[in-house]
Amino acid sequence: MINTTESTPTAPRLSIRVQGENPLHHLWNNNGTWWIHYTIHPDAYTKARVRRSLQTRDLATAIRRRDEVLGALPFEPSANRAA
């Protein structure tokens, strides 16, 4: 059967959970260097985990860079996703 449903491609969507009680959420320390990790959804059917170095050993700098990285990504809240 051929699917004839029209679908409009969408921009990748960021999937994050904010945990106020955990200020280090999305961060981890790998041998002294801070890294960020998060998930994006390029389309409705796939997801990609992103991990990248923040290239710092300083926690305050890592938190600032994490906030900059996440703030620069496209974010589309989903009504059916739990916070």
What does this structure look like?
This protein has 83 residues and is of the alpha+beta class. The chain has one domain. The chain is built from 1 helix and 4 strands; from the N terminus they run E-E-E-E-H. Strands 1, 2, 3 and 4 form a 4-stranded antiparallel sheet that branches. The C terminus is likely disordered.
Q: Any low-confidence stretches, pLDDT <50, length ≥5?
A: 79-83
How much strand? 25-35%
Query: Strand tally, please?
Result: 4
User: In which range does the helix fraction lie?
Assistant: 10-25%
Number of separate domains: 1
Brief sketch in words of this structure:
The protein is of the alpha+beta class and 83 residues long. The protein is built from one helix and four strands.
Keywords:
83 residues, alpha+beta, 4-stranded antiparallel β-sheet, 1 helix, 4 strands
SSE inventory with pairings:
Layout lengths: L12 E3 L11 E4 L2 E11 L2 E8 L5 H14 L11
Antiparallel strand pairs: 1-3, 2-3, 3-4
